[in-house]
Amino acid sequence: MIGERIEASHPFPIGAALILAAGLALAAVGLGTGNRDVAIGGALPIAAGAMLLIWGIGRPFAARFREDGLLVEGQGEPVLVPYASIRNIKVGGRLANPKGPDRGRRPIEILHDSGILRIPSRSSFPTHAIVRFLADRIPDRGSREVNPALADFLRVQEEKFGPEHVYTFRATDRTWKSSLGGLRAFACGVILGGGAWIFLGTRGIGSDGWSPAGIVALIFGLLLFAASFSSFQTTGQTRKLRKNAGLVIGPGGMAMIQGSIQGELRWAELLEARFRDGPRLLQASHGHGIPGIVLRVKGAEIVIADVYDRPLYIIHDLIQMSAELTEPVDVEP
User: Fold this and answer.
1) Among candidates 115, 118, 129, which has minimal Cα distance to 87?
2) How far apart are CA 185 and CA 144, in angstroms?
3) Which domains are seen in the chain, by residue range?
4) pLDDT digits (tens, 9 = 90+) for 223-274
5) Backbone angles phi, psi at 276, to 5 degrees
6) pTM for the full predicted model
7) What is the DSSP string of 119-168?
8) Which residues pair with 62 in a beta bridge?
9) Phi, psi of 268 (to 5 degrees)
């Protein structure tokens, strides 16, 4: 794919079109029957649907795959996103798993050192092919600056097996942020619709209640607009897990600090390592269904959460490789 150009566009926003159509239908019925109130009532859904439609269509995406990174084209100069700067990938809102099943066309989110790059679902390349290509170019080693509490385990592993066979990861300083552009577009539509109600109400067109209703809609729209600029990131639980998190994986086992969990695990104790790319609503074990790697040991499950400086699929592959190909080795604390 090196040298190839990728183009992608947003799918047609059917929901926005339906809202717009409902508003236009109200207006048409009101005008056709001479009922001004019905016609005025369609002003808000018309405005909201139109704004959502404009936002939903969006600007096409274009970029070129280079040896050193993804060169993203925009309105100004192209911007290079180096492969080495990529911290994580999501597909359709779920953590990417290049070795998992192909789930068809999905939007891709790329978390990198400078922000989040979003590739719409309607792309000139299959989603899974893009993810696999990017995954092959992301470094499989995180920062060596791990939590000091893991220093002894790291030192022993390096002395016994060599630094090249020991992998370390620290808490990431980059987090996912929700894209609230749709909320902002809807808020603008509500503000415009509320303004129309106030204008028509003060002109004596329709019932007396349109001006108060317009004021309520205007206030509601302004609140939504302000909320659309909030920096919603991950859940409060994940933020707590990220604090001081650290992970060391070596031929003799692994050691981790994550929230209230701190300890070492030898590969002989590991029964299963399962990759969970999305949340589970009904989950009674530790982690409460958050995305992550579920480590099953005798009598318990431990979840490695998505709080590290490299994608979890890399950590999952390293755990499986170490547990399957390496003879269990007792490591002194």
Assistant:
1) 115
2) 43
3) 5-57+179-227 (no CATH), 61-135 (2.30.29), 148-174+235-325 (2.30.29)
4) 999 887 765 444 455 677 778 899 999 998 999 999 888 999 999 899 999 8
5) -115, 105
6) 0.71
7) E-SEESS-HHHHHHHHHTTS-S---S---GGGHHHHHHHHHHH-GGG-EE
8) 7, 73
9) -65, -20
